[in-house]
Amino acid sequence: MPMKPLPSLRPLDVSVVEQDGKSYFCLRDGEGYVEEQMLLAPLAFFIASCLDGQHDVAAIQEAIRKQIGVETVPEEIVYDVVNGLDEIGFLLTPRFAERFRTMTEAFHQSPTRPAYLAGKSYPDNTEELRVFLDSMYTRETGPGHTPAE
pTM score, two decimals? Predict the structure, then answer.
């Protein structure tokens, strides 16, 4: 009896990071629906890369056998990866659909738009931001150059 296909992975940014002498794949949501990042070991990343909405557990196990050479990967490992990705919001599932709906609704109902990069690319404190911006207009050169009188 064929199994049900597993959900699709959302479009994510992926980078390789080194930690404790080992390589991991760091998944990040470039669209901003999920702030957290997730590190995956190579096998878990391979499983995640197979999540296209068409493959079931057996097909992923077969892909692992053919591509990586690991004879048996228990289905619990596949489901652990799937469940972890779903919990964080990286899969196209009803859980993410609800997160998307809630965030979109809140965005449309808000009378103002939050400064998404405040505290990341520039200060989120009003006075610190004022100093930061003023410093751009008091330099002797550059786009904030104030001509001498």
Answer: 0.78
Classified as helix, coil or strand, 40 is strand
61 vs 9: CA distance, rounded Å: 17
Beta-carbon-side half-sphere exposure of residue 3 (alpha carbons within 13 Å): 14
- Report the alpha-carbon distance of residue 78 to residue 61 in Å, rounded: 8
Q: How many CB atoms lie within 10 A of CB 80?
A: 13
**29-78 pLDDT, tens digit each:** 999 999 999 999 999 999 999 999 999 999 999 999 999 988 889 999 99
Q: What is the pLDDT of residues 1-32, one digit of tens each?
A: 568 999 999 999 999 999 999 999 999 999 99
Query: What CA dihedral angle connects 110, 115, 119 and 121, to 10 degrees?
Result: 160
Say which amino acid occupies 129: L
Side chain identity at 101, as an amino acid letter?
Answer: R
Query: Which amino acid, 65?
Result: R
Distance CA 83, CA 107 (A): 28
Sheet holding 38-40, edge to edge: 13-19, 22-28, 38-40
